[in-house]
# Entry
Amino acid sequence: QIPMIVGNKGAQVAQVDPPTLAALKQERAKPAELQLTAIASRSVTTAPVDNDTSTAALIAKFEIALQNGRLIENGDGAYEYYQQVKSRPDAQPYTGLMRLNLAAKLQDEAQIAINDYLSGKQDEMQKRWQFAFATAYDKYPGYLEKSAELLGADHFMYTRLKSREHYFAGLRLRLKYEQSKSNDPKSELLKMALAEQQKSIELDASAMFAYNEIGHLKILMQAYSEAVPQFEKAVSLSPTWALPWSNLAFAHYKMKQYDKAEQFGLKALKLDSTFFLTLYNLGLINYQKNEYAKAVNYYKKALLINPEFTLLYFELGLAAFYVEDYQTSEIMTLEYVNRAPNNPIGYQMLGEIALKNNKRTEAEAHYKRAIELNNGYSLAFYSLGDIAFEKNDLENAKTYFTRYLVLEKNDFDGYWKLACVYVKLNDNNQAVTVLQNAFDAGVGDTKKLENEACFEPLMNFPAYQQLLTKYRKKE
# Structure
């Protein structure tokens, strides 16, 4: 951060020869200056209203507003008071300092936010994850715009301030997109956010946080390979900043390059062993590598740092399930359901845990609750079909698997299970029709059919043999 002139104007920074100073004051003194002698004798930032002029009153109001953080509020902000006095002759000895103090104050909060972001400070990250732009980021673009205006286009800070103005404008748009829970990679909000970040780096090519933000936007746009060079640019500008290294790990994770993803994650972890996002990403990566115990370890560490990240409870519960720690899995999943009661995945997970604990009735209730929350949640229909099939409740099994296939037309397991139901119902023709539908959908597999015990009654059924013969040749 390049320092601005802020603070106590009356603080002693050098010794002065008194006779010389007195002579200069006498030569340069004018009535307007003498009128505000009481204010001029102190810093503008501490001046009381001890003069009955309107200018003195406005300057005092400016200082109170500045000290209380009311910067560009309509009617009672420091910027408005400055605008009222800047052209008054009797205010000229003070307007320069007022202008610089206000310009510095307008950029102060945004600069702190950037500094905290670059250092990976948890409070700053939480603001972004919890969409706190309404009370923080929402005002930064306007603040930075006014700060640049006050300093003028010739000031050495002008282009940097304009760059950050565009950065925060883009950040606001991206956070609004995420808060809307939209999954549209072609969203206009994302396009507008990207345009703002591109303006930011056009004005300041060293804005590593803008490159990182572009990478994040590319991930939201599902353009993962395009995100990588943006994060690489960010780390080239700030190689000790853990966040873009962690984001590189996530980009490669999304491209299913898990070994490479882990390398970047470990690099980020080496830079900051307490950075929540890195620990979470390493958990995701190791889960995909079937290293479930390692995933559990990373998730537990992440949870200690950020217990407010709701999805983490589900991820930890899922990884614990695969290491057969069903107690931890259930505790974590129940906490997830408590925090996200309208998401069916929590109830689906509780159903899976109940099955492992041989509580089928309880499992069935969880799956039905998932469907109540979302009638398009396909996995619960599949699980209910399995339970009905095991109970020989074939009519309900048929209903559940049929509904599953309406939602998941490209899953061979669904066709397979529904065909098995029809075999048990002694409806061989319909069983073969279901399997034919699977091959028509391009997901049939003759090897799985030949090795499946439930299809043994079809082995002497001509239509089934014709289907196998036809598709063996194609495979």
